[in-house]
Design a protein that fits this description.
nucleotide-binding, alpha/beta, 264 residues, ATP-binding, binds adenosine-5'-triphosphate, ATP hydrolysis activity, Rossmann fold, single chain, AAA+_ATPase, 10 helices, transport, 35% helix
């Protein structure tokens, strides 16, 4: 039987430069204010978790980081979000998404081969030789801990893989443009425990040379993978701290109540 992933060795987030900086950020869906005066730094090459009850704005903030919110009609934002010191609303959104990749809750391979899934992004950035393509495919699938399972069927459809394999394929696809930041929106909520464990291990591994930001409803997952955790409630950032500190010694009453299961 596979061993459950049990990482709890958090890395320090003190004095780590932020790769994303949010300053007094507000966001409205038409008249509804979903994010209220958020200020937060995302440390580079660390894993950060967003936790909080349903509807508190975690996914909205995550989707802001690569301007996915641009696709929603009626969205209005105020305040600043910087990626590597540049205001993301003053840069080209497609260029931003090359550097800030996304993995969704439900695995969503494109209806094409495993190889084509991986090369989808890179092939749009430059013309690739067969060798270059092969190298990217092997590097990304190896990084996503999927190479050994699929190396003999790279030309088969990505849709033919199991749910857990599909999610690792989506992670490999997100890695193919060599992003600095990987956004993950409840990436294991549709997966079985073994696949969940593999993806959690991957998040920790990837956060050594990428920045990982994960939205999760699973408190144990946040403690296992994240170096820093931010707790949101009704569109506000209530508290952010190194993960061990936030879970063992929350400062705010609402954080204490949420962590002790008094509301969900
Ligand atoms: N496209 C949209 N149009 C209008 N309102 C939206 C839209 N997306 C989200 N909202 C609202 O904004 C608020 C924050 O939603 P969001 O999905 O960011 O919360 P969340 O904390 O990620 O929730 P969950 O944990 O359930 O995914 C909710 O009240 C939600 O109904």
């Amino acid at each position: 039987m596979e061993k459950e992933f049990t990482q709890t060795q958090h890395r320090s987030v003190a004095d780590v430069s932020p790769v994303i900086s949010v300053k007094h950020f507000n966001l409205w869906y038409t008249d509804f204010q979903a994010l209220k005066d958020i200020s937060l730094d995302i440390p580079e090459h660390r894993a950060t978790a967003f936790i909080g009850p349903s509807g508190c704005g975690k996914s909205t903030l995550l989707r802001t980081f690569n301007r996915m919110c641009d696709f929603v009609e009626g969205v209005r934002a105020e305040g600043v979000v910087e990626f590597k010191g540049q205001d993301i609303f003053k840069t080209d959104a497609n260029a931003l998404r090359v550097h800030v990749g996304m993995v969704f809750q439900h695995p969503n391979p494109f209806p094409m081969s495993i190889r084509e899934n991986i090369l989808y992004g890179p092939a749009r950035m430059k013309r690739l030789s067969r060798d270059e393509g092969d190298q990217i495919v092997e590097r990304c699938l190896t990084r996503a801990a999927l190479w050994d399972e699929v190396k003999d069927k790279l030309n088969q459809s990505g849709l033919g893989l199991s749910g857990g394999q599909q999610q690792r394929l989506c992670i490999a696809r997100a890695l193919a443009t060599s992003p600095d930041v990987l956004l993950m929106d409840e990436p294991t909520s549709a997966l079985d425990p073994i696949s969940t464990s593999m993806v959690e291990e991957l998040m920790v591994e990837l956060s050594r040379d990428h920045t990982v930001v994960v939205v999760t409803h699973n408190m144990q997952q946040a403690t296992r993978v994240a170096d820093k955790t931010a707790f949101f409630y009704l569109g506000q950032l209530i508290e952010e701290a190194p993960t061990a500190e936030l879970f063992s010694n929350p400062r705010e009453t609402r954080t204490q109540e949420y962590l002790s299961g008094r509301f969900s």
